[in-house]
Records
---
Amino acid sequence: MIPVWAQLLYLLGAVCFILALKGLSGPKTARNGNLIGAFAAVLACALPFFYADLDHIPLILAAIAVGTIGGVYGARTVQMTQMPQMVALFNGVGGGAAALVALLELHEIVEVGSHVEKFTLVATAFTIFVGSVSFAGSIVTFAKLQELMTSRPVIFPGLPIVFGGGLVAAVVLSVLEVREPDLTLGIVLALIGLLMGVLLVLPVGGADVPIVISLLNAFTGLTVAAGGYVLSNALLLVAGTLVGASGTFLTLLMAKAMGRSVANILFGALKGGSTLGAGEASDRPVKSAGPEDVAIMLAYAERVIIVPGYGLAVAQAQHTLRELVDLLTSRGAEVDYAIHPVAGRMPGHMNVLLAEAQVPYEQLIEMDDINDEFKDADVVLVVGANDVVNPAARNTPSAPIYGMPILNADHAKQVVFLKRSMRPGFAGIENELLFEPGTTLLFGDAKDSLGKVLSAVKGL
């Protein structure tokens, strides 16, 4: 029985998690929100040591030490471009931990042989299966984003049959588990969950992978909530529900930003509708220029819109870009950053990257608010982005990104692309905007190219 004082502290932790989520909704309050959430997490981990009769305390402390070291190391060393991969790993660990805890609880139920409510057994089976799905799926998303495996969809004949059979087997095993708890059945259920997690993510390719990370994050939240019910822990129940709800909303919003349904994102490859991932470089002729030519275009432009993308993050060119924007602004130009909802690889990824370079948040304009202004722009500078300005999303029904809302860069008077090569974007298809008469390409590393453009603008 949890004492009243501990329950009150758990309630405080739950309130802190809610406040943390609220704080994370805005750039000005995000740091405080993060600290509040960290405090609640520490409180939740520390409380059982003061009221519960714990066994294996040295092992628990060792696990906490390993987790702390891993978390601090990851926070200090992982680059901003690798944040989605780290989110995938942390999310997978959460789902796997929930599944293991549920298996341990199932073992105790079987050993004691006492009467347990059916709903508790339902929650246990749910946590084992969905937690295993989240763990295995998150590992595959990490491998795809880290390029440890191909980012293209991986499908094989009979995949839908195997996937459907796995779901049926999981339901049957869960029903048997509820009727008569058995640890062996629980382990088999976990193994099926691992298989289903792999099969769920393998057909997903290219730009769709971050959306699946968000979906798996929602899965992990639901398993933690169910685990909280099994353990009679209100804090886990509240925290898991928050993660599950926010992850679900984020998944739906990201899918809307891609102009597609979640079902199409998950299973579109089976019908040829998934984004492809890596693609071949085009050999079609384009109009290219040097840094001096681009500098002249920018120096004489009154309205400039910057479209940042993942390539900007890879090149770590955000500081140089900010210097260039500051220089153009000081000379009277009106300059804003156009932020697509899925710029980078996760929502908010580009905002954080630019905030790191101390770009004023007022200059970051969301897609819906800036799209009508592209027609008045003298120059649109696209830095490391591709799919979010690809007109195929509007004009080519056969394109995997067809229907995705895009930035109207093609409506501007002139477009300048900073690209390393003619390889396609993350969706794996060509961008016809690259071949338009009003488009100029500046090839090279974004940081190096922007540095040369900046120097050339200063010399004008």
---
Amino acid sequence: MTDMSATPDAVQALFTRPEGYVFARWGRPIVPVVFGVDDATLAVVKGGIEAVVALAGHRMAEHDPELGANVMVFFCRDWDDLTGVPNLDRLIDGLGPLVARLQAQGANQYRMFRFDAAGAIRAAFVFLRMDPGMAEVPAEVLALDQAVRLICLWADGAFPQGVLVQAGGHAVLHPQVGAVIRAAYDPVLPAATRDASHALRLFARLPSAQG
């Protein structure tokens, strides 16, 4: 949906990686924790996640019985800061090489997912480097954008134009993106699949496909 059009091909492209169609959504309630921000920003980030989870018809929780928290969001000024986070290297295999790669790429964000035996998302790690460009983004916009990007396993580059639009002077979720998220969490559909026909089932649930 690079142009935010709602066609079967556009929906399929949202979840198509080099290895083919790969869809996954969360299979358990989401329990977020945020590091590296003040209390006010913490509340905004968690509020953005809660809003997208509610849109999806999914659930939040206070505790994940396996992991404690299953969404970890890290804000940093420099990628090197991550190497000083206690025990992070135990959670992220190859943390040192990852940091070096992000530095070399000049990246300002990175997401990593883990999956359960059925292929559904069981954990997500979000790393945000607050470079000058990122620092100019309002906290509410950044929170909503990142929440959308962790609610499903999207293809790399799925939203080159972003997931938000301006409405009434405020940044809001693009209606087509919201519709795909709601469709993705239809309980009738599988939590994970590599069958590209799944995209047709998603498309059939979009308001534009129903007239």
---
Amino acid sequence: MDKGEINKVLTYLGLMKHPSILVLALVLSVPSVLAQPEVSLGADLVSRYVWRGLDFGQSAAVQPSIEVGVGGFSAGTWGSFGITDANANELDLYLSYAVGPVTVGVTDYHFPGVGLDPGTESTSDYFNFDDGGGGHTLEPFVSYQGEAVPLSLTLATNVYNDPDYSTYLEAGYGFAVGGVDLGLAVGAVFALDSADGTQGSGYYATSNDAAITVLSLTAAKEVPITTEFALPVFGQYVVNPETERSFLLFGISL
């Protein structure tokens, strides 16, 4: 399916005009349609927000989340808010459905900003749904989490507000050593359709048609605080071969 056909399908579904409203409506409708939903909320405090090999804000961040789940459906919101750099804020909505080890879903990315002139429409405005300059990017995804073999795969493609149709592919492998959960991952990005004729993906700031942006090692464990409470902590070492940058992160989950 080419770019034009994709846009026609999205227009028919109403996504091209109001993508965030659709995701929000689905988020709100899941609990009312299906009985006995489970609600979870939490937050991570991280020393740096690094996503798919990209550094957002060069700041520590608080990352809250709320999720409603019932059966195989999950819907929720996740955000990241820089402690010293509010321009690095992110606020997402997502909807997913899991069948066994396979999960399919869609994420609506929004990056609210600060210091905007009143009455000026920008990519930070929540109700700016323009394609090519609006405040939302839609990304359908599919992931696989192995059970017998701890192998994970994720494939995600921007289909709205990204002329390159930037795509991310990641493979991971999990294991444990001495009571610490470890994970190895490699991630690559490529553009399905560079509309302006240039190479690479502007969304991921790459200059090549395909590039590895993530080589990572993650470690996680629970630190006992009392006999009834343990604090989950994690660390991650990330190398981005495309930008030739590396990061060492630490986080606490609540």
